[in-house]
Amino acid sequence: MRIGVPAEVKTDEYRVALTPSGARELTQAGHEIFVQGGAGEGSAIGDDDYRAQGAQIVETAADVFAQAELIIKVKEPQPAEVALLRPGQTLFTYLHLAPDPQQTQGLIESGATCIAYETVEDQHGRLPLLAPMSEIAGKIATQAGAFMLEKPLGGRGLLLGGVPGVAAGKVMVIGGGVVGQNAAQVALGMGAEVYIYDRDIDRLRELEHQLNWHASTCFASVLEIEQRLPEVDLVIGAVLVKGGTAPRVITRDQLSLMKPHAVLVDVSIDQGGCFETSRPTTHTDPTYEVDGITHYCVANMPGAVPVTSTWALTNATMPYVLRLAEKGIVAALAADPGFLKGLSVVAGRVVSEPVAIDQGLTHLPAAEALALLAASR
Fold first, then answer.
1. Which ranges carry the Alanine dehydrogenase/pyridine nucleotide transhydrogenase NAD(H)-binding domain (predicted)?
2. So which residues are the catalytic ones?
């Protein structure tokens, strides 16, 4: 199979979708790899590193898209990239379609087959391609939040971990999944007082054990959150609905309950954000203020640490890329119901039910989508 790796063009995105080790595995299996020149530079990977493992370096993204049957990326395709997609081509990347009808429409019109990393499931219903980036984003969320609490950056002027004789700061983490757990672990490591919220009691029991009973686990009711907001210095939103738009867990009115210059970090921003006042920001310009509360809503948090996140991501995605290349798209998806859950758009039809519901579209059931794919090849 011919596999293409374009350079990422989203603002402040430094990751790349393939490492030299991945190129070696694919070329050794007889596949052709086309990497855009400079694609790996942000992750400290040079063109010669790819060439040494059998990949071909091409000059532009248009060259990559023109030659490849399978395009692998990190972030959702930007409009210029969507325009390069064509029928019969497959795109495998993070899509986060639910809050982005413009991208959905572009992918529908492209006629391409689009598979989303973030909705692929393993046999236990977990999200193996989202997990490594969730781990990194959770750690960055606390790290960034602690930084933004510093006075010169508009924060309260508080050291999150405190010092002897001065109380530590308080951190509220809303969402007890992979992001929330990692955010809480880092906050505890800094010495903060941590409250982690979720609606799944069994998950809260697990977190008690995983966090060594050092964090307070709380049921995420509206009243419980409201009662805690006046006490906390940093709130991390880590709410996930698989494939769907994130629910709002803090409204603008509730900001008035918080301390002046407290910080909100919205890790759910890729799925529309879980705070009413959230809007996407970049690493270059990461924060803004609403009603005296600092908001950090960077839409690609792991992109800030590409030397870590590129390898973490590709370690997870490579087995799936190999399956697509070896078996072909239809057979690879048909053989794994969890992989099939990543199928989002096929031949101008939306396959992801959560995306269709959020955008008022009709969804094509996965079995029908597979049959349509098989018939077109």
1. 149-297
2. 96, 270
